[in-house]
Design goal:
alpha/beta; TIM Barrel; 2 domains; four-stranded antiparallel β-sheet; 14 helices; about 15% strand
Length: about 400
């Protein structure tokens, strides 16, 4: 058996402080990126795709994975322009296929992509990581967002803890929660929050309102409608679509979440049973739910996985979680590499959500996407790859 997972890296385009020359020097083989300048819902032209692909290849790298070709909110909540947006999506898939880019990541999370309450949680060794505090999130939900009936989503114990937090939380901490949950976390991946957002809470409420009356079953049906339309195009273009799990894998803010566990993933893959309808196996997102056995999920869905995010989390019994070292935590990355290399060898993988360390903090990187922290993680994962290959296990 030969381990040959492709070492890829998420790169945010020419405005990224991390350059392709830097990535070439640290052993990156493939680039994971997108046409970040194109507004969600617009067509990715063949010319724009080819221009970026040629630029990446000029550094001796290849554009391995699109992350992401965003699914517009109106497709998710079935707005009046859904059909046209789906047609645009299909055109973009055709153009990507013609350019030779065959793996496309997307998600179907309503309104908010991923959630953390702290972006610089200090670890004992002085490095920093991303952190989710359920009680602080509840404070945002109930006291800042003031979502109707939000209290019903929390236990009596959690509400008691929330009452204690409400006595001591400062105004600056409240403002930081808004910045972290809405602006900083979403601003570089979600069109709705890009630019200078003057009233983020009001905007957030307006987006949530579009999903009133949409439960899990309806959101599933909206996803199925999307897949039934785009998977035949993906097949014709030779493109593999791979859905990203919800982060975290649980219902939040009254919104349904439909990619949270084994049953959800199986439903999606069976909804349109095609090899081109696949999974982005994000070990970090899946491991942040205590209900998920991550290696078991990998064994079950390896053959329908087209891309792997190798990261891990530590999760407390109360639901708080943080990013773990890539050799630790509930992600069990050594076991995952073994499983994927046995069942579906050669997949592209990328390390994800590296720690903030040394002088990373001065560089204004996107949250979770530091250079030195991810380089450290890439070294750890490279060691895993070589160990698995050498021991042939």
């Amino acid at each position: 058996m030969s381990v040959n997972m492709e070492k890829t890296w998420r790169w945010f385009g020419r405005n990224d402080n991390i350059t392709l020359d830097m990535l070439r020097q640290i052993g990156v083989e493939g680039i994971v990126t997108a046409l970040h300048e194109v507004p969600n819902g617009n067509v990715w032209t063949l010319e724009a795709i080819t221009e970026l692909k040629n630029y990446i290849e000029s550094f001796g790298l290849r554009w391995s994975v699109v992350e992401s070709l965003p699914v517009s909110e109106s497709i998710k909540f079935a707005g009046s322009d859904r059909d046209q947006l789906i047609e645009n999506y299909k055109t973009s898939l055709r153009n990507l296929g013609e350019a030779g880019i065959k793996t496309v990541v997307y998600n179907f999370m309503p309104v908010i992509d991923w959630i953390r309450t702290e972006l610089n949680y200090i670890l004992p060794d002085g490095t920093k990581t991303l952190f989710f505090d359920k009680i602080r999130f509840a404070y945002f939900d109930i006291h800042i967002l003031e979502r109707k009936n939000a209290e019903q989503d929390y236990s009596e114990t959690e509400l008691m803890q929330l009452a204690e937090l409400a006595k001591v939380i400062t105004q600056s901490e409240k403002e930081e929660l808004i910045q972290t949950i809405i602006v900083k976390t979403q601003g570089f991946v979600n069109d709705s929050f890009k630019g200078d957002v003057q009233k983020p809470v009001e905007l957030f409420r307006a987006l949530l309102a579009k999903y009133e009356g949409i439960d899990k079953q309806q959101l599933r049906e909206n996803l199925k409608c999307f897949l039934e339309a785009v998977i035949p195009t993906a097949q014709e273009a030779g493109v593999n679509l791979c859905i990203h799990p919800d982060d975290p894998p649980m219902a939040v803010l009254g919104l349904p979440r439909i990619v949270t566990n084994e049953e959800d993933i199986a439903w999606i893959l069976n909804a349109v049973d095609s090899p081109n309808n696949g999974l982005t196996f994000c070990a970090g997102s899946l491991s942040s739910g205590l209900h998920n056995n991550v290696p078991a999920l990998a064994r079950k869905f390896a053959n329908r996985t087209h891309f792997v995010h190798l990261r891990s989390t530590e999760v407390a019994e109360n639901g708080n979680f943080m990013e773990a070292l890539h050799l630790e935590g509930r992600g069990h990355l050594v076991e995952l590499v073994r499983i994927f290399e046995q069942q579906n060898p050669g997949l592209p993988m990328r390390v994800d959500h590296g720690k903030l360390m040394l002088d990373d903090g001065d560089k204004k990187y996107n949250p979770g996407y530091s250079f030195l922290g991810r380089m450290y993680a890439l070294a750890q994962v490279s060691g895993i790859l070589e160990t698995v290959k050498t021991l042939d296990i």
